[in-house]
Amino acid sequence: MPIVEVKGVSKIYHQGKIIFKALDNVSLSIGTGEFTALAGPSGSGKTTLLNLIGGLDLPDSGRVILDGHDYRKMSDGKRADLRLESIGFVFQSYNLIPVLTAAENVEFILRLQKVSKPERLERVRTILDEVGLQGRHNSRPDELSGGQQQRVAVARAIVSNPSVVLADEPTANLDSKTGEKLLDLMKKMNEERQVTFIFATHDRMVMDFAERIISLHDGKVADDRQKR
């Protein structure tokens, strides 16, 4: 069974009298352990699709199914629980809590999951070391570089052992060398942990790393190719 199924999904936004069809009857499936890029220019629908896969929004028509769970058949609370247990998010703007240290930012998701303190501390220490932040556990976001902040965001996304990590333009604010190191890190985690990664991106470097590229144009799937 695919980890993600999108079936005939459409999404329309209203801006005053203007109607914008962000997605138009999109269907696709993504298997467990894939490293997939949703590619396309600004306005192609890739971020909208990523948000629907993450259950942050619902389609106007069609169905989105994550790990066998149909979002349409779930309450808001149940969708929130599924996000907490099964999905990790990595955002372009990092979305770290400024007053918390790197360790506390990563630990936050485990607190929500009510993981015991000894296990929380051990998992946070291990994942921060794994992403190359030894010695920076107690640094706040404003004391870290952009690349280090994004590594904290990746650690936060992975620490809860999710089935899927959704990354929206994760390299957009990074220089090419830092972005490449981050992608190497995520690919390693994908291979070692069999976590499914889905990127929304227009960055050629992300597409080069991806094993599958689903190209969107004007809200429709224009191309879907497996590279290897």
Task: Describe this protein's structure.
The structure is a single chain. The chain contains seven helices and ten strands. The protein has helices spanning 46-53, 76-86, 102-112, 117-130, 146-158, 176-193, 204-209, and strands spanning 4-15, 18-30, 35-39, 61-66, 69-70, 87-90, 164-168, 196-201, 212-217, 220-226. Strand 4 (61-66) and strand 5 (69-70) form a beta hairpin.
Based on the model shown, name its key terms:
228 residues, alpha/beta, 7 helices, 29% strand
Percentage of residues assigned to helices: 25-40%
The Rg value, from CA coordinates, equals 17 Å
* SSE pattern: EEEHEEHEHHHEHEHEE
End-to-end distance: 20 Å
Question: Quick summary of this structure?
Answer:
This protein is of the alpha/beta class.
SSE layout:
Blueprint: E1 4-15, E2 18-30, E3 35-39, H1 46-53, E4 61-66, E5 69-70, H2 76-86, E6 87-90, H3 102-112, H4 117-130, H5 146-158, E7 164-168, H6 176-193, E8 196-201, H7 204-209, E9 212-217, E10 220-226
Parallel strand pairs: 3-8, 3-9, 6-7, 7-8
Antiparallel strand pairs: 1-2, 1-4, 4-5, 9-10
